[in-house]
Write a structure and sequence with these properties.
With 416 residues, the protein is α+β, with helices and mostly antiparallel strands. It folds into two domains: 203 residues, Cytochrome Bc1 Complex, Chain A, domain 1 (2-Layer Sandwich), CATH 3.30.830.10; 180 residues, 2-Layer Sandwich (Cytochrome Bc1 Complex, Chain A, domain 1), CATH 3.30.830.10. The protein is built from 15 helices and eleven strands. Strand 9 and strand 10 form a beta hairpin. The chain is globular and about 60 Å long.
């Protein structure tokens, strides 16, 4: 059982504490409830841009990294479609350095023309390197546009186009910051070798004075149910034909999320999984194949993707994937489900062994609604039954709700 306690400051900042006396460190994690889905469709990529800008220094700290490193700390950040997360780990006696730096950039981030120009170039180059000039690099742009009709999950975290970043002006970047990077839109988790009273006192000291500003109210988007299968074919200079089959799935708050995660691991959780054993090792239809979920807060995706062996017709490979999906409804055993559950539970326990991993996870569950949710994961996976798996497959993994992307080598015979 991971013990947590929570306090909400007057400015709206949620503070969560977790004590671990067995480590000499403290982790400070600040999660902002802003991701790619909160962007203007004409100015995408801003959440990711801020992942870079947040390290450009603040009013009372010209550098974020240097003072933290001098205090024996390390830090990093990540962004997705739902939220942005910043975390640092320092020796427990240097906790004040980390808290000061986080509070100062929350209140006084140095967003100037020079830093914006520098980071715009960095992000645009990252876009080009990983999404334009990389084989299969635009897959997520193509898939998301197929799967989502209205929801802002329609674009990936990097953004829709490089122009959305390169043409961004200082005023709109500052406005995005003032709308989203506010105490009432953030979760601060302090985990490690620090007592609860001290943690809350320091949170109040460093963050309590920050005046809250108006946070833009998030609009609910109703994504229509898909009833007709969609397909798209693209040709590119890639080494092998790629097959991507994506489905709208459940949101992260639904118990069916655990069903979908278990199914994805049954299909492709390691070399003993169904897809690898049958379609890679035995039938040699694919060079590699994987099934996974996006774990999005709202309407997630369930995806099967594979690189097809040379000279194997795409239609044959695709039919084999669908056969494996159908076999989940008729050939699944309790023994196989138990084996997969054990793997997942082992991974959950491993991810919570480090104080950094634990603190990041606590912030995530607090964003979902309750930090104590971290203690309920095992029971929710245990509650998945064969009947729930079959029901999920019949509800979500059907032809009429599929989005199939054929990512083919140039000059490939389209009849395959």
């Amino acid at each position: 059982m991971i013990q947590v306690s929570k306090k909400i400051l007057k400015n709206g900042l949620t503070v969560v504490h977790h004590l671990d006396e067995n480590t000499p460190f403290v982790v400070v994690n600040v999660l902002y409830k802003v991701g790619a889905k909160d962007e203007d469709p004409e100015r995408t990529g801003f959440a990711h841009l801020f992942e870079h800008l947040m390290f450009e220094g603040s009013k009372h700290a010209k550098s974020y990294d240097q003072p933290l490193q001098e205090a024996g700390g390390e830090n990093n950040a990540f962004t997705n479609n739902d939220y942005t997360n910043y975390y640092s780990q320092v020796p427990a006696n240097n906790i004040d350095i980390s808290l000061f730096l986080e509070a100062d950039r929350m209140a006084f981030l140095n967003i100037n023309q020079r830093s914006l120009n520098v980071q715009k170039k960095v992000v645009v180059e990252e876009f080009k390197e990983n999404y334009i000039n990389q084989p299969y690099g635009d897959v997520w742009h193509l898939l998301r546009e197929m799967v989502y009709e209205k929801h802002p999950y329609k674009w990936p975290t990097i953004g829709l186009r490089t122009e959305h970043i390169s043409e961004a002006v200082l005023e709109e970047v500052r406005n995005f910051f003032s709308m989203h990077y506010q105490p009432q839109n953030a979760i601060l988790v302090i985990g490690g070798n620090i007592e609860e009273a001290v943690a809350f006192e320091k949170a109040e000291q460093y963050f309590g004075w920050i005046e809250p500003q108006t946070v833009t109210e998030k609009k609910e988007v109703i994504e229509p149910e898909q009833t007709v299968a969609k397909t798209k074919t693209v040709y590119a200079d890639v080494p092998l034909n790629g097959l991507y089959i994506a489905f709208k799935s459940t949101d992260r708050y639904d118990d069916d999320f655990y069903v979908s995660d278990l199914i994805s691991d049954i299909l492709s959780g390691g070399q003993s999984s169904r897809l690898y054993q049958r379609l890679v090792k035995e039938q040699k239809l694919f060079v590699s194949i994987d099934a996974y979920i996006s774990a999005s807060n709202e309407i997630g995706m369930f995806v099967v993707e594979g690189k097809i062996n040379e000279d194997v017709p795409v239609s044959v490979a695709e039919a084999a994937v669908w056969q494996e999906i159908e076999l989940l409804k008729t050939e699944l055993t309790e023994k196989e489900i138990r084996k997969t559950k054990n793997k997942i539970l082992s991974y959950l326990n491993f991810s919570d062994t480090s104080i950094m991993g634990r603190t990041i996870n606590i912030a995530y569950y607090e964003m979902l609604g309750d930090a104590n949710g971290i203690n309920q994961e095992e029971s929710k996976y245990e509650s998945v039954t064969l009947e729930k798996i079959q029901r999920f497959c019949n509800k979500y993994l059907t032809h009429s709700k599929s989005n199939t992307l054929y990512y083919l080598r140039k000059q490939h015979d389209q009849a395959n």
